[in-house]
Design brief:
mainly alpha, 5 helices, single chain
């Protein structure tokens, strides 16, 4: 304020404020007061919204992680992989399709569907069998036509490991579900009832 007063030739040595009068009701003052309030209120609201969004995003991310871990544990307990589950879903959707003869047009390999392996492999084999039974089609999987439990690639007859991914394969005299070693020929595992391959 000293330079302002000097413009009028008044040199301020000491300046005391004894009273501040707020011109309540004055339109200019009321407008300034509202703008000042809105400035700080908007900033506070934006910060609060940002913090709320961060907490919400973190909560959603934790839900996804927990769900993924639960799904992985479930698959591990039931003895199949995510890839096998997806193959089963594709096979099931394809089997529901009324135009089952268009499997090849849809880009679905029967080897992928029938060769899922393990428990899911048995279910998929049943779905594919049902889909082709009504059409009088020949079942594509034979004793010489086996597929990898991990990646679904066709195996070389008698192979102990997959040519594509290197995964070890269960020997024909061992149950693919429970690992029981067969001592005589048969169609089903005497321990868990799973249909025998080959």
């Amino acid at each position: 304020m000293i330079p302002d007063f000097l413009d009028y030739g008044v040199d301020l040595k000491r300046f005391y404020v004894t009273t501040i009068v707020k011109p309540d009701g004055d339109p200019q003052y009321e407008k300034f007061k509202e703008l000042h309030f809105r400035q700080y209120a908007d900033i506070a609201e934006a910060k609060l919204r940002q913090q709320t969004d961060v907490i919400h995003a973190q909560t959603e991310a934790q839900k996804v992680v927990i769900d993924s871990q639960a799904q992985a544990t479930k698959r591990m307990q039931e003895g199949y992989t995510y890839q096998q589950e997806r193959c089963f879903d594709v096979a099931q959707d394809a089997a529901r399709n009324e135009v089952a003869g268009q499997f090849s047009n849809m880009g679905i390999g029967l080897g992928m569907m029938a060769g899922v392996g393990g428990t899911v492999g048995g279910m998929v084999g049943g779905v594919v069998s049902d889909a082709f039974a009504g059409m009088g089609a020949v079942q594509p999987q034979t004793a010489a036509n086996k597929f990898c439990d991990q990646c679904g690639a066709e195996l070389t007859p008698g192979a102990a490991f997959c040519d594509e991914c290197g995964a070890p394969q269960a020997p024909a005299d061992t149950c693919v579900k429970c690992g029981f070693k067969f001592i005589k020929p048969g169609k089903f595992c005497p321990k868990c009832g799973t249909k025998r391959e080959g």
